[in-house]
Amino acid sequence: MEFSFSPFRLLLLAAIVISFWLWGGFSVPNLPEDDYRDPSKVARAWGQAILLFLAGAVAVSVIDHYVGNLDRTNLRLLYILVGIIMMIGSVLWLKGMRSPITDLGQRHSSAALLQSLHQNPIT
């Protein structure tokens, strides 16, 4: 595995990181006062999601990996695909941390189902 710092690849890396910054990926998710999640665990997960995104951005932009001695094969396409998957996973993880869960599954609980059946009997 080697790094190739050509001007185009550095520009691509900068564009990816700047777009992540403009999306708000580097800002800590604000939790409401009555949220059930622990702020320290959310901050740790936020940091891990940023590292996942940055590793994906590096994999997409500057990594080359050649295998073989005589017939050398470049695995760059594999690194691009894995990097894109890492960045998408990171963005979805950050989006999940930012959106509060207010329902907590009460619509699907058995008590709510029984209560709705008592109020509206099936005839």
Automatic annotation (TrEMBL):
Keywords: Membrane, Transmembrane, Transmembrane helix
TM region(s), chain numbering: 43-63, 75-94
SUPFAM superfamilies attached to this UniProt entry: MFS general substrate transporter (SSF103473)
InterPro entries: MFS_trans_sf (IPR036259)
Protein name: Uncharacterized protein
Organism from which the protein derives: Phragmitibacter flavus
